[in-house]
Design brief:
about 500 residues, six-stranded mixed beta sheet, 19 helices, globular
């Protein structure tokens, strides 16, 4: 039990490091006790469970900021979200446990242990991305260390998971050094590996580049439910005013956030004409977050989309959001909730969206642009798909206003920085209330808008065509980790089978 409590404490501290911006440097030290316990001869199951629950519950506490959105009394809403946080934490803990639990059978005190533990922890983070219905790759060790640009450049090699691998490797390296108090082959190898990653980062950051295309980001600052209660013409009027106020004659592309126009704008002739008028008068194209309504027979579907507006009309290519937010944009296990919580069905009835099925790349004046919508930006594969389809820059339109000033807004933004480094593409992020910024392919912020302000800014970006190693072969790192895990599982299984076989032979002899 004491191991579970120790794990809980370690997890809570890690959750605070993840959530509190000023504590980000702790990512390089907080997991030393974690590694020390796993390197020991102790059974680790209870420790892992305690660590996972402490880490994820602490990190997910921002969800309590959504209690005002749910049409329930405040105490009931708090109980509901406490249950949601606990359920998500249990799932994430279980996935991390699957990856790490067998380590106790594979540790040998040899030089490979440092790399093996780092690889298994990274595999646990990957499982949190790929398991259907419960995928939630929010908690990556790469997120807090975006504050250290030299360290995250490795994402261009094998993605954000490789950055997480380097973070945990640093912790395991220090833990081993403290425990042994002398250098051995594993410590030297791990130190050399981390040094090589830092050297690569330094070289990559040394390379400078100038923007060639002018883009304008418009941050309307329409908070939460306020936006959905406004008249469509008033919302469009606000965005039009900001665009005219901040655009200069050189602007080529204007970006408006996710559901900046929270209605089926293409169904309103006046709205369509107004958008084309903005494009024509500013001689710039628009990428606008809005709602798309599609009627097929008696069925009506709604999509969360990005439209491409040009001077001569609306581009027929529309990007429909592929990964929807559970309970926010669609209701998983709808039949179950229909029986158990019919009030939830009524609440969600106006918020249902249908998921899109493919990536769209827009051919604009500023280059070929791949669009991601809000929640999708935490999934590296979506951005990778856009680049593989020819995107020369990435646009992320988002609505984080629900999270107000919680750590979630900054954490979500950090994922955008990682997408930029992974792909070596400029990322243009337009948030409803923030964080809006232009990020270059090294993860450096070119320009940004203060949060919770109504304004716009114009800055230069550069469309790029060359792909990083991650774009070309980034999955190799994950497949190596999976192959390692499978081989070790087979080795353990064979060991158990042979042990059982010899046990039976000994019994027969007696």
């Amino acid at each position: 039990m004491w191991l579970a409590m120790l794990g809980l404490m370690n997890g809570i501290i890690m959750g605070l490091v993840y959530s509190v911006e000023e504590l980000w440097i702790g990512s390089f030290f907080v997991l030393i006790p974690f590694a020390g316990i796993l390197f020991s001869k102790k059974k680790i199951s209870f420790f892992l469970i305690g660590y996972g629950l402490g880490y994820y519950i602490t990190g997910l506490s921002f969800l309590f900021s959504l209690t005002d959105v749910v049409p329930l009394p405040i105490y009931t809403a708090n109980v509901l979200f406490a249950g949601v946080i606990l359920a998500i934490s249990i799932i994430l803990t279980f996935l991390m446990w699957i990856a790490l639990y067998p380590f106790q059978y594979w540790r040998r005190g040899s030089s490979i242990d440092i790399f093996l533990l780092a690889g298994l922890y990274t595999l646990g983070e990957w499982l949190q991305e790929i398991v259907p219905m419960v995928s939630f790759p929010w908690f990556r060790l790469a997120v807090p260390v975006v504050k250290m640009p030299i360290f995250i450049q490795g994402a261009s090699l094998f993605g954000s998971l490789f950055v997480s691998f380097c973070v945990i490797l640093w912790n395991t390296w220090l833990a081993k050094l403290i425990m042994k108090r002398k250098l051995d082959r594993s410590i030297v190898l791990a130190g050399a590996f981390i040094g090589a990653v830092l050297l690569y980062g330094e070289v990559r950051l040394y390379q400078k580049e100038e923007g060639t295309k002018q883009v304008l980001i418009v941050q309307g600052n329409h908070e939460g439910s306020e936006k959905w209660a406004m008249e469509s013409k008033d919302i469009l009027k606000d965005y039009k005013k900001l665009a005219y106020q901040y655009a200069n004659p050189f602007v080529e592309l204007i970006i408006m956030p996710e559901t900046a126009l929270p209605y089926a704008v293409m169904d309103e002739k006046e709205g369509r004409e107004e958008l084309m008028s903005i494009s024509k008068q500013l001689s710039a194209e628009l990428l606008v977050g809005a709602i798309q309504k599609e009627e097929i027979g008696e069925e009506t579907n709604f999509y969360n989309v990005v439209y491409h507006i040009k001077e001569d009309g609306i581009n027929q290519t529309v990007y429909r959001k592929q990964i929807l937010v559970p309970f926010g944009e669609f209701l998983p296990f709808a039949e179950f909730f229909n029986k158990m919580c019919p009030w939830l069905i009524d609440f969600m009835s106006g918020n249902y969206f249908k998921a899109g099925e493919e990536m769209a790349v827009f051919d604009t004046k500023a280059g070929k642009i791949g669009a991601l919508i809000c929640y999708e930006s935490i999934f590296p594969e979506i951005a990778k798909e856009a680049v593989e389809k020819g995107a020369e820059a990435l646009v992320i339109v988002s609505n984080d206003s629900w999270f107000q000033n919680t750590p979630a807004m900054r954490e979500h933004y950090a994922h955008a920085i990682l997408r930029a480094v992974e792909s070596d593409r400029y990322v243009i992020r337009a948030g409803n209330t923030g964080i809006s910024a232009i990020i270059d392919g090294r993860g450096r912020v070119v320009a940004s808008i203060p949060e919770n302000t109504s304004m716009a800014f114009q800055a230069a970006m550069r469309p790029k065509r060359d792909g990083t190693l991650y774009i070309k072969a980034g999955r190799v790192f994950v497949w190596v980790l999976c192959g390692m895990y499978i081989l070790l599982i087979l080795r353990r299984a064979c060991s158990l089978i042979f042990s059982f076989f010899f046990y039976i032979i000994e019994k027969i002899k007696k």
